[in-house]
Amino acid sequence: MGFSFEVDRTAEGGGRRGRLRLPHGVVETPVFMPVGTAASVKAVPQSLLEEVGAGGKGTQIILANTYHLYLRPGHELVRRMGGVHRFMSWERPMLTDSGGFQVFSLSKLRKISPEGVEFRSHLDGSKHFFSPEHSMDVQIALGADIAMVFDECVETPATWERTRESMGLTHAWAQRSKDHFELHKDRVPWFSERQEQTQSLFGIVQGGMYADLRKESAERLVEMDLPGYAIGGLAVGEPREVTREMIARTLEHLPKDKPRYVMGVGYPDEIEEYARMGVDMMDCVLPTRAGRHGLLFTSQGRLNIKKKEYAEDQGPIDATCGCIVCRRYTRAYLRHLFASGEPLSAVLNSVHNIAFYLDTMERVRGDLERGAS
Amino acid sequence: MGFSFEVDRTAEGGGRRGRLRLPHGVVETPVFMPVGTAASVKAVPQSLLEEVGAGGKGTQIILANTYHLYLRPGHELVRRMGGVHRFMSWERPMLTDSGGFQVFSLSKLRKISPEGVEFRSHLDGSKHFFSPEHSMDVQIALGADIAMVFDECVETPATWERTRESMGLTHAWAQRSKDHFELHKDRVPWFSERQEQTQSLFGIVQGGMYADLRKESAERLVEMDLPGYAIGGLAVGEPREVTREMIARTLEHLPKDKPRYVMGVGYPDEIEEYARMGVDMMDCVLPTRAGRHGLLFTSQGRLNIKKKEYAEDQGPIDATCGCIVCRRYTRAYLRHLFASGEPLSAVLNSVHNIAFYLDTMERVRGDLERGAS
C-alpha cells in the first residue's frame, strides 16, 4: 500500500512518460531528485524548492542521506520529530539512500564482513556498525516514501572476480534488507495517520563495469520482486560511454512496469540522455555542489560565474531560463557575490541550477508525452 | 529635489511617527535598516527582504557599505551597472555610509592627515586614499538615496582633547563633503531617468562620550543645513547608559523637522528605546551577524539555537512571530541545521531576525501613531 507506478507512453528510444504514486504525493516521471543531504538541499529554502523550476511546479521529490542523518541528528530523534518530512517541513515525496555509498566513500577504517560494515564516523571518529537490518531500521525511522536496500559499493576500478564477489554480498544484503523491511515497515512514523500506507523498498543492481554481471545482478534482484530497481555503482569515475553502456545493458533486464532509478547522475545532458533511454528517476548533488563553486548550467552549456568576462555582464545567467534568479539578477551581480564570498551566492546559484535540472526534465517529459524520443 | 521628511505626531517621550520621501520610495519612520554590506544583506535573497516582517510589507530601506563596494567590485563598475539599486536588483530606498567607519575599523596602516586617510585594503593590502571629496565621488557613483558625509571615527576610549580635535576634523570634512556633493550630485547614475532627482547628504554628529562636544558638534552641523543628521561614534564599546545619554543629549540640539539617524545600533530593546526617544532611523548588522552565529531574537528574549535543549523542541523560534521561518520550521530543525553547518541555517536565522527587528519597529510605529510613548 502507498505505491504504484504507471507508464502512459513509451517513446521509440525507450523513454517512458509515467508517474509514481507515493504516500506523500504523485511524482511525474522521468524525474530528477535534488539531494537534501542532511535534510536540507544545501542553501535552498524549502519554499523555493517548491516554487522553482518545471514551470513553477517546483521540486517533486528530494533525496536525503541515511548516513548523514543517522550520524546527525540521529534517526531516533528524527523519528520522534515525526519523520524526516515533518522534521524538515517538506510534505512532498522523499527518498532515502541506504547509507551504503557514504559508508564506503566518506567514513574511515571500514571493516566489511558478511554481517555488515564497521566504520568510523567522518565527523568525530566514533565507531558504528551498519548491517542491512540496521539500514532498514534507520530508514524506517526516517520515513521517506522510498527506501533503498543496503548494498556494497565496490571500489573502482575492480576486477571481474572482485566485482562478482561484491555483487554476491549485495544480493545477500538485498534479501536481508527486504526480509527485515517487510517485518518492520509498519513502524514508519506516519503509518497510522496515513491510513496504514508505508514506504516502498527499492533494490539496487550492482555489477560494476561488466555487462554480464549487471545482467546477473538485475535478474537476481528481479526475482526478489521489489517495487522498483536502482542501478548503482555508476558515475564513479568511469568514462561516460561506459556509464551509458552499463545503463543500457541493465535496463534490458529490468521489468518495464516498474520504475528504474539511476543513482548519482549527472550533468544535464546526461540526465536528459538517460531519461530518453528509459530511466525514470535520477538524483545528483551536482546542481547544488556546482552552484556553490560558481558553476552554472545553461541552455548554452556551462558557465563559470567567477570569470572576469562576466564582471559587467548585465544579462541573466540564461536568457531562456524563467527561474527567479534569471528573472531578477545579472551575471555581473552574481559574479560579484561569488567573488566577495557572499553567502547569497550559494543560494542563488543553487536555485538556478536546480531550476535548470527540473526544467530539463519537464521538457523531456513533454517530448515523451508526444511520443518523441 | 528627491527628499522630504514629515512628522505626523510626536509622542510625549519624544518618539516621532513620520515618513521620509526618497527617490526610490517612501520610508515610514521610525525605521530599522538592515545592512547589505557588499550589496547583499548577508544570506538573504532580495525577494525575502521584500516580503518578510512588518506584516508582509518587508524591508523599507537597506544600507550598503561604501568601503566594501569601493574595494569590490569598485564604485565605477557599480556606476556603469546603473548604480547600486540596479546592480543588486533592489528598487526600494538605500543609504550608503561614508566609508569612514570601515576605514578606521577594518583597514590596515592608516595615515590620517587633514587632507584625508591613506589606508591599506583589508583584502589584499593595496594602498588607497579616502578624502571627503573621494567619499562623495564614490557615494555618488553608487547612487543610494541617502549619502553620508565623510567623518573621522575617534578610537575609544579617547580623552576630551583628542575627541575635540577629531571632531574638528570631522566638521571640516563635513563641510568639504557638502561642497563637493553639491557640485557633483547630478552625476548620480539615475539622475535623468528620475526627473533630475538626486541623493541627499546627511551630516554625522561626533563628540565621543562628552555631552558638551556632542552639543558643539550638533550645532556646528546644523549650521551646515543638511537634510538629515546622524549620530555617529556610539555603540563602540561604551556602557549602554552612556549610549543612551549621548543620544538624548544630542537629540536636544538637532532640529525637530529633520530626520535623526543613530548609526550602528543595536539590540531589539535598544532600537525600540531609541525610537521612542525620537530617533527616526537606525541600522545594525546584528540581526544578520547574530543569525549566522545561531543567536535568535524573540519576544521572550534571546535564544541560542545551538543549545542542546532545543534538539527536540517542536515549537517555532517565537510563537508570537508570524515570519515565514516561524510559520514553517521548528527549533529542532533549526538547531540541526546550525549544528550540521548547513548553509540554510544562516538564511533562515537571518530572515527571522530581520523580521523580528522590522516587526519591532512596526509595533513602535503603531504606538507612536496612537500617541503612546
Automatic annotation (TrEMBL), chains A, B:
Under SUPFAM superfamilies, the record lists: tRNA-guanine transglycosylase
- What is annotated as the active site? 97, 283
Gene3D superfamilies found in the cross-reference section: Queuine tRNA-ribosyltransferase-like
Any one annotated GO CC term: cytosol
Co-factor binding comment: Binds 1 zinc ion per subunit.
User: Which parts of the sequence bind Zn(2+)?
Assistant: 321, 323, 326, 352
- Transferase found in the keyword field: yes
Domain of life, per UniProt, equals Bacteria
Q: What is its EC number?
A: 2.4.2.29
Keyword Glycosyltransferase tagged: yes
Give all residue intervals belonging to the tRNA-guanine(15) transglycosylase-like domain.
Answer: 14-371
Q: How would you classify this enzyme at the top EC level? A: transferase
The protein's GO terms of the molecular function aspect are:
metal ion binding; tRNA-guanosine(34) queuine transglycosylase activity
Which PANTHER family does the protein's record reference? QUEUINE TRNA-RIBOSYLTRANSFERASE (PTHR46499)
Task performed by this protein? Catalyzes the base-exchange of a guanine (G) residue with the queuine precursor 7-aminomethyl-7-deazaguanine (PreQ1) at position 34 (anticodon wobble position) in tRNAs with GU(N) anticodons (tRNA-Asp, -Asn, -His and -Tyr). Catalysis occurs through a double-displacement mechanism. The nucleophile active site attacks the C1' of nucleotide 34 to detach the guanine base from the RNA, forming a covalent enzyme-RNA intermediate. The proton acceptor active site deprotonates the incoming PreQ1, allowing a nucleophilic attack on the C1' of the ribose to form the product.
Which family, according to the similarity comment?
A: Belongs to the queuine tRNA-ribosyltransferase family.
Q: What is this protein called?
A: Queuine tRNA-ribosyltransferase
Report the source organism.
Tunturiibacter lichenicola
